[in-house]
Amino acid sequence: MKFFRSSSDSAEKNPGSAQGAKRLTRRSSSMGQLVKELDSEEALCVLDLGSTSPANIRYCTERGHKIYSDDLLVSSTDPSLVTKDETGKTILDSKRFLEENLVYPAAQFDIVLCWNLADYLDESLVKPVVGRLWSLLKPGGSLLAFFHTQEAGPDAPCYRYHIVGADTLEMQLIDLRSDAKKGAARNSSPNNFRLQRVFNNRNIENLFRDFASLKFFLARDNVREVLVVR
After folding, report:
1. What's the pLDDT at 93?
2. CATH architecture of 2-229
3. N or C: which end of the chain has fewer CB within 10 A?
């Protein structure tokens, strides 16, 4: 869990795995809409669910916002989280996971950048994590999430997203081999996190059923973008 009040020079000079690989660029209609909030004069509190991104830190802090980052995908690879439910099925201990992650005061954040987390996170953690995010958002706060469509396929690469413009994101492949926290990643392929499931529109609506509203944006790269309001 990391908190930044200003741009991180050390992160620029010593980039980690999320900054080390070749990046692709994509347009994002939902990000374009969310940027209208980020460009407001009001100081906001943002939660970025991914590895430290100097680009995201810079984009937010230059506008006077506070930004926290929490890499839940990497945290979910902790082998000690593995347990079994009452039927003997192997799951991750969601209670312990939430005791160790997303530990913030209720209603702290104006914006949560969830990215593609739900598609790659272990199924036993998805609903508990979304429930925690609901409690962390202020009423009226926004959450941005990406979901793959059925056409993406199970080998769809997992990317880290960096804000580089009003409606433009850089996508960087997450490579666990070079991640300092890699350990035993039970939810990943040899080089990357693996797509766990595909949510259709009804699945997404059910996932965010406690939120006030959601809006869908269909992109060209087999990704469905969703902007959710608490």
Report:
1. 97
2. 3-Layer(aba) Sandwich (3.40)
3. N
